[in-house]
Amino acid sequence: MVLVILRTAILFFTLLLIMRLMGKRQIGEMQPFELVITLLIAELACIPMADASIPLLYGVVSVVTIFVLHEIMTLLDLKLKPMKSLISGKPSVVINKNGIDEYQLKRNSLDISDLIESLRTAGFFSLDSVDYALYEANGQFSALPKENYEELQTSLPLVIVESGNFDRKNLAFTGLGEAYFREILQGEGVKKIKEVLVLTADGTGKLYLQLKGEKFRVLRVSYPDGVTW
Amino acid sequence: MVKSLTAILLATALLFGLGLFEWQFVKGEFAGFAEEAQSLFEKAEQSSASVEDAKAVQTAWETRKARLHVWIPHNDIARIDEYMAESVRLIGEKDFSRALAKLEIVLHLTACIPGTYRPAIENIF
Description:
The complex is a heterodimer of chains A (229) and B (125).
Chain A: H1 2-22, H2 32-50, H3 56-79, H4 81-88, E1 92-96, E2 99-100, H5 102-107, H6 112-121, E3 130-135, E4 141-145, H7 149-152, E5 158-162, E6 165-166, H8 168-174, H9 178-187, E7 196-201, E8 206-211, E9 217-220
Antiparallel strand pairs in A: 1-2, 1-3, 3-4, 5-6, 5-7, 7-8, 8-9
Chain B: H1 2-45, H2 51-68, H3 74-92, H4 96-112, H5 121-124
């Protein structure tokens, strides 16, 4: 019995640690410890139910242990601020006034595509349409839009360069070649494509460029032959 | 807050109380059965054990077994069941040397099984 209690507690804390290390990508609308409990409780109930060689009491004991751990975690989460950030994590500000915070993205095992997807889900299609964006501790995405954000997203922006690599599919969609964008980047003082964190282009000729470790800039260009999308 | 603390304390006390009871109960049951099995073993060593003696030990085990099923995995109990049944048969046939080998295993299991539920590092991991 004591063995079951100890083993349940060890597995609980191991899973909680792993969930915290995995970052926000693995969590959705639940605190990490709540997700761990959800993962564990169904299995704990099922094993003695299906395996007649295990006393039913083992299942009951491990589920009660999970209940105790849940209550302890909830109390620590509510009453002790330092423990709250340790158990549940902290919100990560991934877009600020300078643009995308690459470090915060990496810390949460996310990339630019994930961020753009989250922005689109939240109703923001252009990276410059928000002043701040953050992933909450429970993995939910929140953004503070600019005042005139609707005017800033009149056309669908496509990712042309992401983390130093051209997106071939989007390049083909625009009908503009790699050389065209390389020329623009050279004009902006970019020597190597690897320096580019993100470059997006929308159908009206607005480009969002952010180099690694630098503030973002918005450029206005005219596409050749009246290209638009 | 008070409700949560009460729930935590009560559930923890219940769990550890149950754990302590289980440890004492399993140890006690196996110690009692070990004495019975030991006396049968000694009789078998002297070739004086009868099938009635063996069946009496088996019946006593059956009674303990019914209580132990609540606390320990049924596979552990089944192992003792098998060796006990073989011992009864061999004693009935007066094949004491083979019966002693089976009873030796019963005694060994009786000594080992309670230890596997002890909260020790080797049992936890």
